[in-house]
C-alpha cells in the first residue's frame, strides 16, 4: 500500500508540475517537441519491455494480444468522440481528457506491476509522458482565458485520479487471475500505443521536424536501460 501511494504520487506529480509551467509560460516549439519525442520513446520502450512482457508472463501471448487490440480500439473510439465533441470548445480540455484517458489504464497497470516488484522503467516513462501533456493542456487553457487557479485546480484533480488508479491497481487487481491481468495490462499497452501513434509522436514531428527522432531514440534507450537494471 505504501509503495503504491509513493508510485502514484510520483506519477501524478508530473501533471501538477506541467500544469504549473503551462499556466505561466509557453515553451518554445523545439523544446516542447523534444519533450514529446522523449516521452514517446520512453513509453514505446516501457510498453514493449514492461507492459506487454508482463502481460505475456501473466496469461500468455493471446490474452495479451486481446487486451492490446481492445485497448487500442477503445482509445481510438473515445478519442474520436472527444475530438468531435469539442468543435468550437477549448482544446485544453481535450488534452486534459486525453491525459486521463490513457493515464488511467497505464496507472492501473503500474499498480498491478507492484505486486511482484515493479522496476522504475514504467514509472519513469509515465512521469516523462505526463509532464508535456500537462504543459500543453495548461498552455491552451491559459490562452483560452482560464485563470491560473482554475488550471492548477483541474489538473490537480486529474493527478488525484491518476494516483488513485495506481493504488486501485495494486489493491483491487493484484490478486486477479493471470488471464484477467494479461488482458488488463495488454489493454493499457494498447491505449498507450494508440495515443502515441495518433497524437504524441505526430505532434512532436510537426513541432520539431525529423530531428526530434533523436530525442525519441534517447527516451527509448533510457527506459530500456532502466528496464534491464
List the defining traits of the structure above:
86% helix, 0% strand, 229 residues, single chain, 8 helices, mainly alpha
What layout of secondary structure does this protein have?
Blueprint: H1 2-22, H2 29-59, H3 61-85, H4 91-113, H5 120-143, H6 148-172, H7 178-208, H8 212-228
Helix pairs in contact: 1-5, 1-6, 2-3, 2-5, 2-7, 2-8, 3-4, 3-7, 4-5, 4-6, 4-7, 5-6, 5-8
Q: Mind explaining what this structure looks like?
A:
The model has no long low-confidence stretch (mean pLDDT 89). The radius of gyration is 17 Å and the shape is globular. It contains 8 helices and no strands. The longest helix is centred in the N-terminal third of the chain and has 31 residues, at 29-59. It has one domain. It has helices at 2-22, 29-59, 61-85, 91-113, 120-143, 148-172, 178-208, 212-228. It is mostly helical and 229 residues long. The relative contact order is 0.26.
Amino acid at each position: 500500500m505504501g509503495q503504491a501511494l509513493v508510485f502514484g504520487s510520483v506519477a501524478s506529480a508530473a501533471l501538477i508540475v506541467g500544469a504549473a509551467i503551462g499556466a505561466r509560460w509557453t515553451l518554445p516549439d523545439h523544446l516542447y517537441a523534444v519533450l514529446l519525442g522523449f516521452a514517446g520513446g520512453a513509453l514505446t520502450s516501457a510498453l514493449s519491455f514492461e507492459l506487454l512482457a508482463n502481460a505475456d508472463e501473466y496469461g500468455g501471448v493471446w490474452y495479451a494480444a486481446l487486451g492490446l487490440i481492445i485497448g487500442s480500439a477503445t482509445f481510438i473510439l473515445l478519442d474520436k468522440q472527444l475530438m468531435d465533441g469539442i468543435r468550437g470548445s477549448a482544446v485544453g480540455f481535450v488534452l486534459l481528457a486525453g491525459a486521463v484517458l490513457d493515464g488511467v489504464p497505464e496507472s492501473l497497470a503500474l499498480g498491478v506491476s507492484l505486486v511482484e516488484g515493479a522496476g522504475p522503467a514504467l514509472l519513469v516513462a509515465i512521469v516523462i509522458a505526463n509532464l508535456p501533456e500537462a504543459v500543453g493542456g495548461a498552455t491552451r487553457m491559459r490562452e483560452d482565458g482560464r485563470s491560473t487557479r482554475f488550471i492548477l485546480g483541474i489538473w490537480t484533480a486529474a493527478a488525484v485520479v491518476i494516483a488513485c488508479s495506481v493504488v486501485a491497481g495494486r489493491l483491487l487487481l493484484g490478486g486477479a487471475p493471470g488471464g484477467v491481468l494479461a488482458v488488463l495490462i495488454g489493454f493499457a499497452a494498447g491505449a498507450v500505443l494508440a495515443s502515441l501513434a495518433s497524437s504524441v509522436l505526430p505532434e512532436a514531428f510537426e513541432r520539431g521536424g525529423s530531428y526530434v527522432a533523436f530525442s525519441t531514440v534517447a527516451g527509448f534507450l533510457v527506459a530500456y536501460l532502466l528496464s534491464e537494471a
